[in-house]
Amino acid sequence: MAEPDLPRLSRTIGDPTRMGMLALLMEGRALTAKELAYGCGVQPGTATEHLKRLQRDGLIESTAQGRHKYYRLATAEVAHAVEALMVVAQPVPVVSPCRRPAGALGAARFCYDHLAGELGTRMTAVLLERAFLVTDGEALDVTERGEAWFSNFGIDTASLRKRRRRFAYLCLDWSERHDHLGGALGAAMAERLLELGWIGRQKHSRVVSISELGHQALAREFGLVIGSPEE
């Protein structure tokens, strides 16, 4: 009978550089070894060895494209585990020049491919308050009322349920200490907001920018006021 090799996993993610790489990949996009090396303050040769270890242990995967190899988190479960560790980790001052200010990360960011920070938690709270979502422990489900709302919003929940990925669950946010929406439904919500132009990705960062249109729409549709509209 096989058991999870937790000691090996703890040694892998216990290294500051490897944990830093996982945190950078929480952006949800693929990054090169050079980008990850720069982000963690190590030499490219050193980064390569760390990436090999992360890949051997099934935490990341790579794709070759032209002369470059791109790395990303292996699964949504890995992202969920990293976010969970961020919840219990003690906060420390961030001095890395490549990191975004804590305020921007706290306002709105990606947790792998779904929305986190103040935007993610407050939007999830509204969906629960309006009874579009209901909880069953950590799991979430969509109510009949919610099915109609998500359909009108441009999200096909029926197709999301057919995916192998978990449909929807509560993901505890490390900065807000409240839950945001994870799973296939959370990813679909983030993708829909991108399609509508309400939010935008920032290059090599998990920070989410909210457009002027997005500020107006979030206030109208969800009653949310987060930060200030772009100048």
UniProtKB/TrEMBL annotation:
One Pfam family named in its UniProt record: HTH_20
Protein origin, superkingdom: Bacteria
Domain (HTH arsR-type): residue spans on this chain: 1-93
GO annotation terms (biological process): response to cadmium ion; response to lead ion
GO molecular function terms noted in the UniProt entry: cadmium ion sensor activity; DNA binding; DNA-binding transcription factor activity; lead ion binding
SMART domains, per the entry: HTH_ARSR
PANTHER family: TRANSCRIPTIONAL REGULATOR-RELATED, TRANSCRIPTIONAL REGULATORY PROTEIN
The protein, known as: Transcriptional regulator, ArsR family
Organism whose genome encodes this protein: Franzmannia pantelleriensis
Top-level taxonomy: Bacteria, Pseudomonadati, Pseudomonadota, Gammaproteobacteria, Oceanospirillales
